[in-house]
Amino acid sequence: MSEILRKGAIGQAVADLQSDLQRAGYKVERTAIYDDATRGAVAALQRATGLVVDGVYGPKSRAALANHDVTRFLREPDLIAAAERLGVSLACIKAVNEVESNGRGFLPDGRPAILFERHVFHERLREHGIDPTPHTARLPAIVNPKRGGYAGGAAEYVRLATAIQICRPAALEAASWGAFQIMGYHWRRLGFESVEAFVAAQQESEGAQLAAFVGFIETDPGLHKALAGRKWAAFARGYNGPAYAENLYDVKLERAYTRFSEEDAGQAA
Question: Phi first, then psi: what are they for 176, rounded to 5°?
């Protein structure tokens, strides 16, 4: 079972989850319907293990239910700290985390999730005083003025390793890192002493990855203002670029914020 389950889901996967929750001591019925009781049990599991409390059952909650180590995963206190640092509501941060993160900051083998951008590497080589032209002719999948060449998953590290042989700092700067896919070349803006220090932080935990994302927002006054004012279209445009509307990022952010706000209000009542 690998799919993400949330309120309203039905089927065998939900029934299996309910059985697992029962065995773990949670009071739910095996109805094969992801109802309020099931969502509440999952939220209780998340709260008990320190995970982000959203009532959605995915890989992280699955790991927690199986008593696996979840210390590197994003935790509720991480989101609370981010909200306080940015001066926004927890619902805002949870909405951004749900929509703008890729769900997991690490590959199954424990390395940070990355995406190597060959067109950025082309630019960074010039910044480091290296002519990219001969490398483009020899390795167009690694050095190229045009976007592309993606391999995905762990295979991105093969591309990165090839780039490192040409210029390590430029290669690390040309990859996006972690759950929020922050580009390595932002290391100085985010307050790191070097790109190596930035990468080391991305290897620590998803909480450290969130901290980098918060720093990215914090150092962009327009982006910060849009988030604080819940101007979702402006925030999505600033973070995702002009094509944000094609992927409905602003709509997804607003819906997620509304849902989390209602949940927070319900818990407080």
Answer: -95, 145
